[in-house]
């Protein structure tokens, strides 16, 4: 089996187009056409992880964080990034990162995993993304079924429910065929735009008169940042922090002042989620759980919410189990393993 089959599966769960602009998710080292010998799942692909992959006979590392974010100009091994990449290339070990594209998924994403561990109910994305486009295609009436079915097959019309389209029949002022014209409206997610325009320009070019594609502001309920949900039963502030500590396996929580109310509505964002604080406040969360808060940013809680910083690694550590579970369920012809290393660079002294 080839590495690309594993990548295709992972990208069906978290399409790479949904990663943030600063990100570098995808295949960073190696060749997708290599035969896979085993996969090692981790949060950070460090030198130790490459070493572990070699020892375990895995030629694919699946990491949450990309080891390379910016262009590398030298390969002298002067820092851990260069050394990790050099080691992986020398040993024919591929490194694949599934990062903010996985953060942004409602299903099977990083935040869904946190929400599940905390037992949150009625979850929804804190900041859903606007990733929809609409196609207006003008089609001779006789070709409408053919065009509609081809678009559905290409993935259009499934953003909200299955096979959704609208057709209106009217008269065009410049209808080259001289026949009645149908206007077909169908939405699709931005990642499909190239596929759809190629279809319209090539296979369907003789079956349509013209088309327009426009961006729409509606947001998707399935792609976006952070998550908010409700606890089955309200807890006192202290009860909740103990519960959080246990469920997220963390030794230390930095938090702002308690509010004079119980905790029921909980907002979460694995990793550096500080930018979502206004969304959490607006949606009435009692507490916002994330990581990487700086001193001054804690003031932004401003008596409206509790900010709880549980640590970056701690907030994302169960992503390993998430990826392991997905791969194990899908593939039985190679071994997937979770790293035995704790790659958290932050240590605590009590
Ligand atoms: Zn992270």
| CATH architectural designation of the largest domain | 3-Layer(aba) Sandwich
Flag low-confidence runs: none
Class derived from helix and strand content: alpha/beta
Q: What is the overall silhouette?
A: globular
Beta-strand residue percentage:
25-35%
CATH superfamily of the largest domain: NIF3 (NGG1p interacting factor 3)-like
Strands, count = 15
What would the average pLDDT be, to the nearest integer? 93
- What is the rounded distance between the termini? 48 Å
- The CATH class label of the largest domain is Alpha Beta
- How many domains, in number, for the residues? 3
Largest sheet: 6 strands, mixed
- Helix count, per DSSP? 12
Helix content range: 25-40%
Give the ligands present: zinc ion
Rg measurement, Å: 24 Å
Largest sheet strand order? 5-10-12-13-14-11
What is the N-to-C succession of helices and strands?
A: HEEHEHEHHEEHEEHEEHEEHEHEHHE
CATH topology of the largest domain: Udp-n-acetylmuramoylalanyl-d-glutamate--2,6- Diaminopimelate Ligase, Chain: A, domain 1
């Amino acid at each position: 089996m080839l590495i690309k089959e594993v990548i295709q599966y992972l990208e069906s769960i978290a399409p790479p187009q949904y990663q943030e602009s600063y990100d570098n998710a995808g295949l960073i080292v190696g060749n997708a056409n290599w035969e896979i010998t085993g996969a090692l799942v981790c949060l950070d692909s460090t030198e130790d992880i490459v070493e572990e992959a070699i020892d375990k006979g895995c030629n694919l590392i699946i990491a949450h964080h990309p080891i390379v974010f910016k262009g590398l100009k030298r390969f002298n091994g002067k820092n851990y990034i260069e050394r990790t990449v050099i080691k992986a290339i020398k040993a024919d070990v591929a490194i694949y990162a599934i990062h903010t594209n996985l953060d942004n998924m409602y299903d099977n994403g990083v935040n869904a995993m946190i929400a599940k561990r905390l037992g949150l109910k009625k979850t929804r994305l804190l900041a859903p993304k606007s990733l929809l486009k609409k196609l207006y295609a003008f089609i001779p009436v006789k070709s409408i079924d053919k065009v509609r079915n081809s678009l559905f097959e290409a993935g259009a019309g499934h953003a909200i429910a299955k096979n959704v389209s609208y057709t209106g029949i009217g008269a065009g002022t410049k209808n080259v065929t001289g026949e009645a014209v149908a206007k077909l409206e169908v939405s699709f997610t931005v990642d499909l735009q190239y596929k759809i325009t190629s279809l319209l320009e090539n296979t369907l070019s003789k079956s349509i008169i013209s088309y327009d594609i426009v961006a729409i502001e509606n947001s998707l309920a399935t792609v976006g940042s952070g998550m908010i949900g409700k606890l089955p039963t309200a807890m006192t502030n202290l009860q909740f922090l103990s519960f959080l500590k246990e469920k997220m396996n963390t030794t230390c929580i930095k938090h702002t002042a308690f509010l004079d109310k119980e905790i029921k509505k909980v907002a979460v964002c694995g990793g550096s989620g500080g930018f979502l604080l206004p969304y959490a406040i607006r949606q009435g969360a009692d507490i916002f759980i994330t990581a990487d808060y700086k001193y001054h940013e804690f003031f932004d809680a401003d008596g409206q919410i509790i900010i709880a910083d549980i640590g970056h690694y701690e907030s994302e550590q169960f992503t390993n189990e998430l990826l392991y579970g997905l791969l194990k369920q899908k593939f039985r012809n190679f071994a997937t393993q979770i790293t035995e290393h704790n790659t958290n660079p932050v240590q605590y002294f009590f």
